[in-house]
Amino acid sequence: MAVTLGLVAFLEAQPGKGDDVAAFLRTGREIVEREGGTVTWYAFKVDDTTYGIFDTFETEDAREAHLSGEIPQALGKAGPDLLAADPDIRRVEVLAVK
After folding, report:
1. Closest Cα to residue 75, out of 45, 15, 32, 16?
2. 75 inside domain
């Protein structure tokens, strides 16, 4: 199978909470390691308040499992303390991979 599906999520940290958002994202790697359907998972920083996640999947079932898995649950618990707004999560289609 080929990696054709993805998710992009942008997270806007509350003022002064950027380091906490970064720490939260670093711990997310441990959770995603247990997800068999997540092919790749990246956490990134755009600037001092904007962070994000990009992940890829081979099947829609794997993407849906991720969306209902531990990462969104953890984000739901930590989000009100860390984020200035709800995460902006978008489904994407992967067009090319190297």
Report:
1. 32
2. yes
